[in-house]
Amino acid sequence: xxxxxxPLARVLSxxxxxGTLLTTAACSDDGDRDGSRASxxxxxxxxGKRQTTSPTADxxxxxxxxxxxxxxxxxxxxxxxxxxxxxxxxxxxFIGTVDVSDFLTAKADAADCQRLLDSLFDDDLLGRPSGSSxxxxxxxxxxRLLYQVASYDRTDPQGPMNWMATLPExxxxxxxxxxxxxxxxQVVDTSLPKVGDAREGLRVTVQGTxxxxxATLTVDVAAVRVGNDAITVTAGGLDGGETDSVEQAVKLGxxxxxxxxxxxxxxxxxxxxx
Length: 274
Prior knowledge:
The protein has 274 residues and is an alpha+beta fold. It has one domain (61-262): Protein Transport Mog1p, Chain A (3-Layer(aba) Sandwich), CATH 3.40.1000. Helices cover 27% and strands 27% of the residues. It has helices spanning 14-17, 43-49, 61-66, 71-74, 83-87, 106-122, 158-170, 243-261, and strands spanning 79-80, 97-98, 133-140, 143-151, 173-178, 181-190, 198-210, 213-226, 229-237, 240-241. It is globular, with a radius of gyration of 18 Å. It starts with 13 loop residues before the first helix and ends in a 13-residue tail after the last helix. Keywords: Signal. Residues 1-28 form the signal peptide. It comes from Streptomyces violarus. This is Lipoprotein.
């Protein structure tokens, strides 16, 4: 698969590129927590039953924006950024051509791993929304959190979630090359709170160099389906992953989306009413 060229404006800022190399700790989260993998249920199995108990009202653009999380929902020291800034976030360490020789079933698995890198760079892990959507970005030091609510009424988000479930096995560890620089990528599954109709979590670690400086980028990724709508969260950076913030965003964000679809006003986060 040939990568399309990317303008310099889409590359990580020099401040992020200057991060120090971290020891890669790409190991699976504790499977005891309540989540799709912790309970032994994969996204594929959930899709087979196709039990959708969530409201089925159409998601409007205003509804999608109302369903977005706030700083209070993820606590810590996250600060919301302008929407235009969040829309242009793209981590250059995700740019690269997957080395097919790393795979036993070379072309098929390599294509899936290439798709993963491309979708993480473009922030469209579940594909382009076919309906209304809204996103919001947050920063905390060298870490970023991007949260999206979107409707996939004409494309069905379950297919991409089933695909996500296969990646820890297909893309356990592989090499990607960009401009002669090699990067080692590791993918493991993570558990999520048992919310929504289906859910899938990953941790992706990219270790290599950018601009001649060694760096390790770690992001936690989560997707939760509510009917034909879904929320996606990507959080992390050169300081490591953001497991706790992702879990909090998934838990409270799913409820916000369900409230909106039911015609209700989402309840304020606990820290907003203290």
